[in-house]
Amino acid sequence: MYEKIQETASWLKERMTTAPTTAIILGTGLGQLASEITDTYEFPYSEIPHFPVSTVEGHAGKLIFGKLGGKDIMAMEGRFHYYEGYDMKEVTFPERVMYELGIKTLFVSNASGGMNPEFKIGDLMIITDHINFFPEHPLRGKNFPTGPRFPDMHEPYDKQLIAQADAIAREKGIRVMHGVYVGVQGPTFETPAEYAMYHRLGGDAVGMSTVPEVIVARHCGIKVFGVSIITDLGLEGQPVEVSHEEVQVAANKAQPLMTEIMREMIKRN
């Protein structure tokens, strides 16, 4: 696997005309941020050697290079999920490639179900921590040379970046919440009892991505900032039916605010 990662990175380096140190992963319904990137050149996942291909509606499936906030960046428009049938080495393949390309900071975004009664649909939740409920750990197996066998996870989401995002949100009058993201396998949305359990265990939002990506990024020494857009609510005693289409609609409405915060953070870093 490590050889494949290096081959993929070499293929991209030969074709790259920029040198980004920041990467962004755009989740379900969050591809609009890609339109903010200027001076772009891109590669469909299907053309990149060894790269998985996204199969989920709302995920375009391409790697974009260009400028955002005046800085060189790379963006994944579409990610890979465990529920699609990929193993964790495939799900986190892009983060390994990012490290080889010189990425130092990773911005992750997702659409998630809120379990905190203070949340509203369309809220931005800055992720302060996570709980890993995936049945396979992304670092299982032979250790990659990018980090220690037992990596520390006391600060999976960078506190300085969180503070900076809070300051920008205050300046721009954007409502942001803080919370713990629960990463689960999917692909079913949660039952009322599951929402209640995750909330009682300390979770504020739940989704089917992000956690494996963050673990591998931190194993590589990459700083992480994460945002969840609350696209539906699973509050105790208030079960609500939810569809993938509704999640995409809610994400589309909220993403300009997320874009504004991320653009300004990249500009200032």
Low-confidence stretches: none
Shape: globular
| CATH level 4 superfamily | Nucleoside phosphorylase domain
Could you give the order of strands across the largest sheet?
A: 5-8-7-6-9
The first-level CATH class name? Alpha Beta
| Topology-level CATH name | Rossmann fold
- Alpha-beta content class: alpha/beta
SSE order, as H and E? HEEEEHHEEHEHEHEH
Helix count equals 7
Whole-number mean pLDDT: 90
Estimate percent helicity: 25-40%
Number of strands: 9
Major sheet characteristics: 5 strands, mixed, barrel
Pfam families: PNP_UDP_1
Keywords: Glycosyltransferase, Phosphoprotein, Transferase
Domain Nucleoside phosphorylase: 22-267
GO molecular function, one term: purine-nucleoside phosphorylase activity
Descriptive report:
This protein has a single domain (1-268), classed as 3-Layer(aba) Sandwich (Rossmann fold), CATH 3.40.50. The protein has seven helices and nine strands; from the N terminus they run αββββααββαβαβαβα. The protein has helices at 2-15, 88-91, 93-101, 159-172, 192-200, 211-219, 244-268, and strands at 22-26, 38-44, 62-68, 71-77, 105-114, 124-132, 176-183, 205-207, 223-233. α1 crosses α3 (93-101) and α4 (159-172) crosses α7. The protein is globular and about 55 Å long. Belongs to the PNP/MTAP phosphorylase family. It holds the Pfam family PNP_UDP_1.
